[in-house]
Amino acid sequence: MVRIARRSAESHEHNGRCRPYVSKFLAKEFEKASECQIRRSTNDSYEATLSGVSHRVSLTERTCTCQKWQICGIPCEHAYGVMIDRKFEFEYYVCFWFRTPMWRRNYTEGLVPQRGHAYWPSTNLPNVHRPPSPPQPGRKKGKECKKDKKRKKGPNESPSKKAPKKLKRIMHCGMCGEASHNSRFHSKKKSSKQISE
């Protein structure tokens, strides 16, 4: 509410034909617009060349082939270059949504201040509460996941017996065949046996 009142005062104090945003927007495009090479054609159309790329600009239809003018309503760098070359005022070619009267009209009817909730009318209906939050994706905390659930056993499986534990693989030496070591440590085992003998 305070922001709307501040913007309303700002719009009524402004004396220009267009909003300050338009002049800031075109100030950024002034450098490129001044570099455009302009060639006049018939039917109030122009050819604007910038960085080797040409675009067709029509001031009467307010169009440019780069489509930027039609999309945002403010003349693009090509159309602005034509206006600089022909010494036209850019304010006449800006969309009416960016004009100062429309800006003032947006903020004429602001938010109306309301009385406190003590003065609100009461009803016999139940109070309105916040709806429950929607379920979030991912694993639910406190609930069993698929891994925690027991697997259903088949008809030929015992319900109480567990599966036998798998025996670990016994390592054997590839040179002598003993189970106490592998081929990597064969020479160390052999030398330790000779020293002990």
TrEMBL record:
Record carries keyword Repeat: no
Matches recorded under InterPro entries: Znf_PMZ, Znf_SWIM
UniProt biased composition (Basic residues): 138-153, 162-171, 183-197
Keywords assigned: Metal-binding, Zinc, Zinc-finger
Thylakoid keyword on record: no
Positions of region (Disordered): 122-197
Domain SWIM-type: 55-87
Protein name as catalogued: Uncharacterized protein LOC104778848
Taxonomic source organism: Camelina sativa (False flax)
